[in-house]
Amino acid sequence: MRYHRARFVAGFLALPVLLYVVYVIAPYAQAFYIAMTNWRGVSATPQFIGLENFRRLLDDSVFWRAVAHNGVLLVLMPVLTIGIALFFAFLLNVGGTSGVAGIRGARFYRVVFFFPQVLAVAIVAVLFQQVFQPRGNGMLNSVVTALGLEPIGFLSNPDIALWSVLGVLVWQAVGFYVVLFSAGMASIPRDMFEAASIDGAGRVQLFFRVTLPLLWDTIQVGWVYLGIAALDVFAVVWVMTAEHGGPDSSTTVMAAEIYRNAFQYFRFGYASAMGVVLFFFTVGFAVVALRLSRRERVEF
């Protein structure tokens, strides 16, 4: 009986596994091979050079600057996004004036928060490129100049350009996690909130003692997704910033350097080496994040 069941399951899995091997595993393996060649995207037989591309990476100051920028985004983007999203989700679901109900119009606000997810990333980048215009016609600088202050170079000042990019990334991501955390909070029985409220728990205690422990698995997943997104920031940086990662490489990230080396400098072998490093950074982050955030599951 078990043999026939195994054959039945294997029959259904054969095609998906084959497609996964062909379209996912094979390209990864090919990238690892190309990373050890000097292939420029033209020759049919690239020259094998071993680990030379990885040795070059050690002396590439622009690449390591991109790694540092990804590191900043990796730390701050999940913290800010999850913190803001939890605040708004808790407000929508438990912040009402009557008992522990949500606020009036919570469904409408969820739609409003989710709206940035409907926009393509490139459109978001173009919109904020106009919002951050250094002249007085930019939305933010029009307010700044109306206050009698000098316009701020949000994307032209190397000291604040990365923080402007971070603000856009958080703005775009918050809405999705508001909806995600709202769904998680909606699954928590109201009896728990009511019992804690009767025992004298305030809003802060309801959040830290009831909501946060019961929502931890959802937060853990969100943390991993946001970390991977922070390591794979490309479209916003490439479209929105000057010089596609400028000024003076102040906003460049690993994905932008991979694209630049592959499709502008035609150094596909070197770009593949960067891709391999990014792959291990991403996998390493996911493993570490899951282990550090592991805790005993709370049943309800």
TrEMBL record:
Domain spans labelled ABC transmembrane type-1: 67-289
Keyword Membrane: yes
GO cellular component, one term: plasma membrane
Membrane topology, from the record: Multi-pass membrane protein
BP terms from Gene Ontology: transmembrane transport
Subcellular location(s) of the protein: Cell membrane
Main location (coarse class): membrane
Transmembrane segments: 72-96, 108-132, 160-183, 223-241, 268-290
Keywords: Cell membrane, Membrane, Transmembrane, Transmembrane helix, Transport
Similarity comment: family membership: Belongs to the binding-protein-dependent transport system permease family.
Name the UniProt record assigns to this protein: N-acetylglucosamine transport system permease protein
Organism: Thermocatellispora tengchongensis
